[in-house]
Design a protein that fits this description.
heterotrimer; A mainly alpha (353); B alpha/beta (504); C mainly alpha (291); A: 353 residues; mainly alpha; ABC transporter involved in vitamin B12 uptake, BtuC; 2 domains; three-stranded antiparallel beta sheet; 14 helices; 3 strands; 5% strand; C: 291 residues; 12 helices; 77% helix
């Protein structure tokens, strides 16, 4: 409740039947978020004009959109699994590490061991799943907070990557490995299709199997869920494994379709798509299939921000931009649950007199 | 008692989101030195009204006057400063703090400069003066409900309350504790304070109150002087044209079958590591209703949690239909045909934010009759079952797909009981199944429990409402400090049961 | 030989310990009040950048702190409005603030042009660090455990409904707690700038400190002294890291272990602490971390 001049402004919760349409509010939030982040461009050397120009040059040019595909499938492979995990209340941020681990595993299989493409991708997925299971086990059996442990694992994975890139798998310098042979690569388009298909499959799992019932009930009312036989441990492990699997596969695909070699990474910045996946998941309201749309949006934004480099806008501004948009959308959507009540204080005083 | 009113409410109105009018232009005056009974069945609006007086809720319209001057309470703190204190039905003190620490915080927020040692002294002296034994240094989580209530009253007095609002104060008290509370109420009134006694139990107000105000469906329907009040008059005001509640339920003849639940020497640790259930043994047969009576906090909750599978017993055995389940969880029990009506609705029995159809799927998760084919959910079946439940139990709901919290408490409970019965359970565990429900809903739930037994289920009902248990049970057991101290069949001796509840 | 190394390590740990500890103490207050601010990492980033921009532009260390404070308060305000007023999920907001804070922090830091602003020489830096950490720990302890304000804050973290009944205004209390956190975070960030990076802002240098600070709150069992001790131990770990000879090529396994040691340590410590807490029957006071 706030008092502005002689007005009293209050947010009153609406009954379940009277709530606004979250989608409409979300779109409004999207527009506001866009405007706000463009305005934020004033702080960068490029200024508002430069920011707007960079965005427009990418969004307005459909010929450039396919360049967003690699970002799209990378972000989506993390976002979809995270959406599922967040629904159950399991707040992991480990998709980034699982993706990098997937890349490493795939490189070993494809670049070092000479295995076929499918085997490499499978190994990538399994590696991600294993990491996910580790975070879940730490939470379920040792009550270790998953947000922190998954983050720590992200950093550990990058350390291992840097060691391998600089040491045993180095191709001369300390920052790169040799390229994969062409028959063990693929196009971003195929990778995107694969990820999309899997995301749809995850949505089907959520909608039509016990998994969905378990995830939502554990997330919203753990006691009720457990009373009627849903297992907290099994549900958490399941979402962690599923999310790790997809993220790991995403890493393998990113290697095979985009980078085709391993490079050393900054511990904290890492690849970045796993972290963007967190934003995409929440932007999609943690609806698995909607993460396809939100990942596409963030991918296009990210593509636009690479254009910033030319205008001397730092890379992390891209993250700030995405953050502002997500914040705006999430705030607007939450607002749809409320009604703004404005009353004139003067009139109330008269009534009381 | 004559003269200017201490507190006046003028046309207080409050509507909840969703359209429920909890208070419809309620006007009431409370005079110094009087005991005012506020009577009405569950859902009549009593708690809403006193919550407004105590500053917990804000009215949509209407005026409250204290000592003749209009007052606006935007928080409980304002009401406390004005001398109005609420002792809620479920004591709301911070459990991790001591009694004195709770008082310290409340006092400081009310603008009084108090130190911790000052608070302790204050608690000790008030406790002695009014005969309300409370240890100022006891952590609230250790205290029984009765002790917590005493602590709340001491706190209210320490903060200088001129008007005490006691909301259903005898809910968690044993009969002797309840009597002593009512004596305290009269004493406080004789000192010049006002006490409003909110209750749905007639016996309490008759004989204690100077005046009795009756609420029904959000409206104040009458105020009767203490001397002119009779049961019949009050019941007529409470229920309107509906018939007054009758005597004990005469259920259909039931002949118990084989043992469904066998509990042997069960020991269960509670939330804080203390022994909550101590060596409990009993048997439950199909076709019978067994009531577990007892003052809240004597291990009933932990016993039910152990039976449901949410809490692992440290010692002892639980066999359902001959199968040992003490080491397994709720899923195993569900598979054996156990149904549960938990103590709380949202969060414990229902998943808020989700529809009835979804909640049916959750409720049936482990049941062999669930809408599942292996791992796949048959949503069509879930919907069909939901519709049947809603029809059979006359559940009023905006729709099968509306979020469950859109239903009133009574309708939620109808759905929950209906859902559990739809499992055709072997064993039904119900904890306080009618708490907070109005008369009609209560009677219906009780009837369904009895019918379930008639259909062959073993029904265990844990309740704080002794009258309810007396009317529906075949056998009554009493839990006291974690042990089963009394067990008997019909005809019941209420005196013996009540004293078993309180014996040390 | 060994003795000299020990005291060198002990001294070297002071600055990293203070940075972590100050940030962690602020978060401790927030968590005792019943909230988690996962945006701590973002707050440190934005404060670091703001401090650098202001300190380099003005040459004044005080202005650097004030700018850091303003930046931290900005993020805290966003947290407050979205979580307390709009009731958005606090985890989402926190994670978003990490991104927002990092992004804005870089923009601000870039404004300093990478120049070196005011800084503290090593001896003074360590003294300042020790004093600040000790003072903040003592102050937090006195407020939380020895004053009625402590009960005010803790009541929200233990049982918000009961707290309201006692008359607590959750919004005002939480706003005050967030402000206190901002002051401490700004202190941590400016200390980092002046004492650890020689007054010069570098992109990404402060990354990870916020996350580790969150871990310190858990390891310190939500007690000011515990948090200070945990932060110091991690500071020791950092100084061990930096004292290792950098002659080894980055490909050596040794370097991997050294690199990842702090993170492995946090996970192991959290797991051990969790088991110990369960065995001894303790419950975390902050209601949000309870399983």
């Amino acid at each position: 409740m706030a008092r502005i001049a002689s007005l009293e402004v209050r947010l009153v919760e609406r009954g379940p039947a009277e709530r606004g349409n979250p989608l409409v509010y979300g779109l409004a939030g999207l527009v506001v978020g866009f405007l706000a982040s463009i305005a934020l461009g004033a702080l960068t050397p490029a200024g508002v004009g430069g920011t707007l120009g960079a965005l427009a040059s990418v969004i307005g040019d459909p010929g450039k959109w396919p360049d967003a595909l690699p970002y799209f499938f990378a972000i989506a492979s993390s976002a979809a699994g995270l959406a599922l995990a967040y629904r159950s209340g399991f707040i992991t941020i480990g998709a980034e590490g699982q993706m990098v681990a997937g890349m490493v595993a795939a490189y070993w299989a494809l670049g070092v061991a000479g295995a076929p493409l499918a085997a490499g991708l499978a190994l990538a997925a399994l590696t991600g799943a294993a990491l996910g299971a580790l975070v879940a086990a730490l939470r379920v059996y040792l009550l270790v907070n998953e947000t922190l442990s998954s983050l720590m694992l992200n950093y550990i994975v990058v350390s291992v990557l840097n060691y391998l890139v600089g040491g045993p798998w180095s191709a001369g310098g300390f920052t790169k490995t040799a390229l994969l042979p062409p028959e063990r690569t693929m196009t971003p388009g195929v990778a995107a299709l694969l990820v999309t298909a899997l995301v749809v499959a995850y949505e089907m799992l959520y909608r039509y199997t016990r998994l969905g019932v378990a995830v939502d009930s554990i997330g919203l009312a753990r006691r009720a869920a457990e009373t009627y036989g849903v297992s907290f441990a099994r549900t958490i492990i399941a979402v962690a494994v599923l999310s790790g699997l997809l993220a790991g596969l995403g890493g393998g695909l990113y290697l095979a379709a985009v980078q085709q070699q391993l490079t050393s990474l900054n511990t904290f910045q890492s690849l970045g798509y796993g972290y963007m996946g967190i934003l995409a998941a929440w932007l999609a309201g943690n609806v698995v299939v909607a993460t396809l749309a939100s990942s596409l949006l963030l991918a296009v934004l990210y593509l636009a921000s690479t254009a910033f480099q030319i205008s001397r806008v730092p890379w992390s501004f891209a993250l700030a931009l995405q953050a502002v948009i997500v914040l705006s959308v999430v705030s607007f959507v939450t607002l749809s649950r409320y009604r703004v009540v404005v009353r004139r204080l003067a009139m109330r005083k008269a009534a009381e007199g | 008692m004559a003269g200017e009113p201490l507190v006046e409410a003028e046309c207080v109105t409050k509507t909840y989101p969703g359209g429920v009018v909890a208070n419809d232009c309620v006007s009431l005056s409370i005079f110094p030195g009087e005991v005012l009974g506020l009577l009405g069945e569950n859902g009549a609006g009593k708690t809403t009204f006193v919550s407004i007086l105590a500053g917990i809720l804000q009215p949509d319209s209407g005026v409250i006057r204290v000592h003749g001057r209009p007052a606006r309470f935007s928080s409980p703190r304002d009401a406390v400063r004005a001398g109005i204190a609420l002792v809620p039905q479920n004591p709301m003190l911070v459990e991790a703090f001591t009694v004195a620490e709770n008082l310290l915080l409340a006092a400081r927020l009310a603008g009084r400069r108090l130190t911790l040692s000052g608070a302790r002294r204050l608690v000790a002296s008030l406790s002695e003066r009014y005969g309300l034994p409370v240890d100022p240094d006891a952590r609230v989580w250790r205290l029984s409900m009765g002790e917590r209530q005493r602590a709340e009253i001491v706190k209210a007095l320490a903060l200088g309350a001129e008007l005490l609002l006691l909301d259903e104060p005898t809910t968690h008290l044993s009969p002797p504790e309840a009597r002593s509370l009512l004596r305290l109420v009269r004493r406080l009134a004789s000192e010049g304070r006002s006490v409003v006694l909110i209750t749905h139990r007639l016996g309490e107000v008759l004989g204690v109150a100077d005046r009795i105000a009756v609420m029904r469906s959000g409206r104040l329907v009458g105020v009767v002087g203490g001397r002119e009040a009779t049961r019949e008059k009050l019941l007529a005001l409470m229920f309107g044209e509906r018939l007054a509640p009758g005597g004990a339920e005469a259920g259909p003849e039931r002949r118990p079958g084989p043992a469904v639940l066998e509990v042997r020497d069960l020991w269960v640790r509670g939330e804080h590591g203390e022994w909550s259930v101590r060596g409990v043994s009993f048997e439950l047969r199909g076709g019978e209703v067994v009531g577990v009576a007892g003052v809240a906090g004597n291990g009933q909750r932990e016993l039910v949690e152990a039976l449901v599978g949410l809490r692992r017993p440290q010692r002892g055995s639980i066999r359902i239909a001959g199968v040992e389940v003490a080491g397994s969880g709720p899923a195993a029990r569900g598979r054996l045909g156990v149904a549960v009506v938990p103590e709380q609705r949202l969060g414990w029995a229902l998943v808020p934010g989700k529809s009835i159809v979804f909640n049916t799927a959750v409720g049936f998760y482990a049941s062999p009759r669930g809408p599942y084919r292996g791992a796949v959910v048959d949503w069509g079946e879930a919907r069909r079952v939901s519709r049947e439940i809603v029809e059979r139990m006359a559940v009023k709901t905006p729709g099968l797909d509306a979020p469950v919290e859109a239903m009133s408490g009574g309708n939620m409970q109808r759905y929950i009981v209906g859902r559990e019965l739809a499992k055709e359970p072997r064993l039904l565990l119900a904890m306080n199944p009618t708490s907070g429900l109005d008369y009609n809903a209560s009677k219906m739930v009780d009837r369904m429990l009895v019918e379930a037994a008639a259909g062959g289920a073993a029904v265990l009902v844990v309740s704080e409402d002794l009258e309810e248990l007396l009317s529906i049970s075949d056998r009554i057991m009493v839990m006291n400090k974690g042990r089963l101290v009394y067990e008997a069949g019909r005809p019941f001796d209420p005196e013996k049961i009540a004293s078993a509840m309180v014996e040390e | 030989m060994a003795a000299v190394n020990m005291s060198a390590l002990a001294l070297q740990a002071l600055v990293p310990a203070a940075v972590l500890g100050l940030a962690a103490l602020g978060e401790l207050l927030v968590e005792r009040s019943g909230r988690i601010n996962l945006g701590l990492e973002g707050m440190l980033h934005i404060s670091y950048g703001a401090a650098a921009a202001a300190a380099v532009a003005s040459g004044s260390a005080i202005l650097g702190y004030l700018a850091a404070l303003a930046a931290a308060l900005l993020l805290a305000a966003v947290y407050y409005v979205t979580v307390e007023v709009l009731r958005v999920n606090q985890v989402v907001v926190g994670l978003v603030l990490v991104f927002l804070g990092s992004g804005l922090g870089v923009i601000l830091g870039v404004m300093s042009g990478g120049a070196a602003g005011p800084s503290l020489p090593v001896g003074e830096a360590r003294l300042a660090a020790a004093l600040l950490l000790a003072a903040a720990t003592l102050a937090t302890y006195l407020v939380l455990q020895r004053s009625w304000i402590g009960y005010l804050v803790k009541s929200l973290g233990e049982d918000e409904k009961a707290a309201r009944m006692l008359g607590v205004n959750p919004r005002v209390t939480r706003a005050a707690v967030l402000a206190a956190q901002s002051a401490l975070v700004a202190l941590a960030a400016t200390l980092f700038l002046y004492a650890y990076t020689g007054g010069r802002w570098t992109a990404g240098r402060i990354t990870g400190q916020g996350w580790l600070a969150l871990g310190m709150v858990i390891l310190g069992f939500w007690h000011p002294l515990g948090v200070a001790v945990a932060s110091y131990l991690l500071g020791l770990l950092y100084s061990v890291q930096s004292l290792l000879p950098s002659l080894l090529p980055p490909g050596a396994l040794y370097a991997v272990l050294a690199d990842s040691a702090p993170y492995v340590a946090v996970i192991v410590a959290m797991a051990v602490a969790s088991v110990v807490y369960r065995k001894t029957g303790h419950r975390p006071p902050a209601s949000i971390w309870r399983a």
